[in-house]
Here is the input.
Amino acid sequence: DADVTQTPRNRITKTGKRIMLECSQTKGHDRMYWYRQDPGLGLRLIYYSFDVKDINKGEISDGYSVSRQAQAKFSLSLESAIPNQTALYFCATSDTGNTEAFFGQGTRLTVV
Amino acid sequence: AQSVAQPEDQVNVAEGNPLTVKCTYSVSGNPYLFWYVQYPNRGLQFLLKYITGDNLVKGSYGFEAEFNKSQTSFHLKKPSALVSDSALYFCAVRDPYSGNTPLVFGKGTRLSVIA
Here is the structure.
C-alpha cells in the first residue's frame, strides 16, 4: 500500500459544484501539504498543516479550504469549482524541516 | 522570501552522454535543497537533498548534485544518461531561517534522453 494515498485519482466535475479531495498517510508525519501542478508553472502551495490544530494558507489558497481531521488525514475542498481550477493536485507529507517530503500519486481534477 | 529557478524548460541529451539540469536558488541564509523526479502519471519521487556538509551529494539512480554557495546553484548531474531518465525534474528549496516554511518548488525541467 502507498504511504500517501489520494482519493479520487481522477475527477470530472461541473462548474459551481463543491468537491473534496482526500489524502491519508501511514508515515506518521505531522506535516501535510496540498500542492497544485499546472504545466509550465510547477508546483504551487495551496495549504499546509504542521499538526492537527494548525492550518496555514499557501500562495494560492483563494477558492480552496482544508480540514485536518486527524494526524493522518488532510482534505482539500473546492467550495464552488471553476474551470481554472482544472489541474493536478498533490498531497505531501514530511517529518521535519530538513527531511524530504513524500508525495501521493496525485488527483487529476477537471472542471467543466 | 525563498525562491528557486530552473532556467531551462527542456533539456535534450543523447543516451550515454552526461546530463545536467540546472537550478539556482534565493534564500536569506544557508538553504536546504532538494531534487525530485516525476514520471508520467506518477507523483514526485525524491532523488537527493543537501542539508549541510559535503557540497557533492549523491542520490538515487546514479544522480548527484553539487551545492555551490557562491553561485547559489544546485545543479543535478548524471555521468551517463539513460532513456529511462526521461522525466520531469523539480528543484526545491527551504530556508531554515524563515521559520516553519514548506518547500518551494521550481517550475520543472523536462529531460528527454534520446537513444
